[in-house]
Amino acid sequence: MQCWTAKGFSQMYGIDYDQTFSPIAKFESLRLLLALAVQNGLTVHQRDVTTAFLNGTLEEEVYMDQPEEYVENRKEKLVCRLNHSQYGLKQAP
């Protein structure tokens, strides 16, 4: 069985997306948070939501090719519109 792949590498800046962003905490912010936790006797926990990206909604319309196993012997090429984010896209919620 073939996977659905978004092929974000084929997306072009200014046409398919306007900006990319990767939310990462600065080291200084993390250090301050940990210092406050120690000072106040608090316990720090870490959480990771593995499917957070996939549950995000898309602001732009994104279309992708169907895997070959879904394509019938037709002359026209059908595409699918994505309703939610998928791995491989430049757009991230």
From TrEMBL:
Q: Which residues form the Reverse transcriptase Ty1/copia-type domain?
A: 5-93
Q: Which domain of life is it from?
A: Eukaryota
Tell me what this protein is called: Reverse transcriptase Ty1/copia-type domain-containing protein
